[in-house]
Amino acid sequence: MSQHLCHAYRCTKAVKPEKLMCARHWRMVPLRMQRMVCVAYAIGQCDTKRPSYAWLAAAQIAISTVADKEGYGLEQRTQIGLIEQMQRGASCAEWEQRT
Ligand SMILES: [Zn+2]
């Protein structure tokens, strides 16, 4: 079974599928932003692998905010993001379907 990892950059902590980040990183997300992620979250989106665009957008903002606080620059983030995407098992086929 594949593990679901915290979505913060370079974090390898395993978290429950319904959680975006581990507790340490989630605490770095401002409360209002946490709410945006929670409101947009649809139960079962991890099973269907089809989160809403609202959730994707909110999640991306939250992830970027944490990256800012941890001092990752844009270029570094893009590189790490792509590598992690692959490590997390997003296959090329899956990627092409989305674009
Ligand atoms: Zn984390």
| Percent range for β-strand residues | under 5%
Please bin the fraction of helical residues.
Answer: 55-70%
- Secondary structural class: mainly alpha
End-to-end distance, in Å? 27 Å
Largest sheet at a glance?
none
Q: What is the number of E strands?
A: 0
The average pLDDT is: 79
Total individual domains: 1
Shape: globular
Q: Return residue spans where pLDDT drops below 50 for at least 5 consecutive residues.
A: 90-96
Bound molecules: zinc ion
Order of helical and strand elements: HHHHHH
State Rg.
Answer: 13 Å
Secondary structure tally, helices: 6
Overview of the structural elements:
This protein has 99 residues and is mainly α. It has one domain. Helices cover 57% and strands 0% of the residues. The chain contains six helices and no strands. The protein has helices spanning 23-26, 31-40, 45-48, 53-69, 74-87, 92-98. Helix 2 packs antiparallel against helix 4 (53-69). The longest helix is centred in the middle third of the chain and has 17 residues, at 53-69. It is globular and about 30 Å long. Residues 90-96 have low confidence and may be disordered. Zinc ion is lined by residues 6, 8, 11, 13, 21-22, 24-25.
Summarize the structure.
By secondary structure, the protein is mainly alpha-helical. It is built from 6 helices and no strands.
